[in-house]
Task: inverse folding
């Protein structure tokens, strides 16, 4: 049985972290299953992915502390690389990825959520990077992505104090975009995903690329990247369809990913 399940809902997919007995903590097996579940996403047809956790208590309560307890320096570094490689794959997946955070998102759980394009959460969600209390640094990208997302000041405070924050504080500092009651979390995430999938898939993908890659560049280079990706959209079926629909005052559009 896999610790990560994947459900194809047509234009979007739902990937569920499923190890509830350990609050969906990430050990090597869970990470392997996460990688295998990503392999199942058919990028030809699926236009958006949602990542959530099984149960009502936890998204992911971090990397597995019991597995990490006796690692050597080299094994620790390799475990960091294993998580980082998979999270980077999520971050650079060509389609948008939404984290639907249903409870604890601690350590590797917060890091998994941050590797997604954006986050919504339930009102019982708790975020944090508790690693320094365990004698380690965040190891699946937390020092880098938290600082980029909420700015170095809040990131340093959260990481140095190891203090967890509740959903309302996460919203205030920009770590999540929206808080909803737990029972509305998946319907809200699915509505968002469905809304994204209605738009021209090539254009959405180019936007993800432009934002992600552009943020790493100087502005002069970043706008050139945008010009290239903007130009690439022209002459596609979907550009012609989108603009023709506007001119014909037509709401229904037939975007084909071509
Ligand atoms: N690793 C391994 N097992 C974990 C776990 C983790 N990160 N988080 C929870 N579990 C296990 C518990 O050990 C417990 O198992 P047993 O019943 O076998 O003892 C089970 O999940 C349920 O957990 P609790 O009984 O602790 O549940 P609670 O409601 O009392 O507390 C909690 C919930 C506050 C989230 C608490 O479980 C907790 O603090 N977990 C650890 C959170 C943490 O420190 N995460 C960061 C890990 S380090 C990391 O992620 C490094 C990195 O960047 C890569």
Result:
């Amino acid at each position: 049985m896999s610790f990560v399940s994947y459900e194809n809902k047509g234009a979007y997919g739902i990937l569920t972290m499923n190890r509830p007995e350990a609050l969906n903590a990430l050990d090597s097996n869970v990470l392997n299953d996460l990688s295998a579940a990503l392999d199942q996403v058919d990028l030809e047809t699926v236009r958006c992915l949602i990542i959530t956790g099984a149960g009502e208590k936890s998204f992911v309560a971090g990397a597995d502390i019991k597995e990490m307890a006796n690692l050597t320096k080299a094994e620790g570094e390799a475990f960091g690389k294993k998580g980082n490689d998979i999270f980077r794959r999520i971050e650079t997946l060509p389609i948008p990825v939404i984290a639907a955070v249903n409870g604890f998102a601690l350590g590797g759980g917060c890091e998994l959520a941050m590797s997604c394009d954006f986050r919504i959460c339930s009102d019982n969600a708790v975020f944090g990077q508790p690693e320094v209390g365990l004698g380690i640094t965040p190891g699946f990208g937390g020092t880098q992505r938290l600082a980029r997302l909420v700015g170095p000041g809040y990131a340093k405070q959260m990481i140095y104090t190891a203090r967890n924050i509740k959903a309302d504080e996460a919203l205030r500092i920009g770590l999540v975009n929206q808080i909803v009651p737990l029972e509305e979390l998946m319907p809200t995430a699915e509505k968002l995903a469905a809304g994204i999938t209605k738009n021209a898939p090539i254009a959405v993908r180019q936007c993800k690329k432009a934002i992600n890659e552009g943020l790493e560049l100087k502005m002069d280079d970043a706008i050139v990247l945008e010009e290239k990706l903007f130009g690439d959209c022209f002459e596609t079926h979907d550009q012609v369809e989108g603009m023709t629909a506007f001119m014909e005052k037509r709401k229904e559009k037939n975007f084909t990913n071509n």
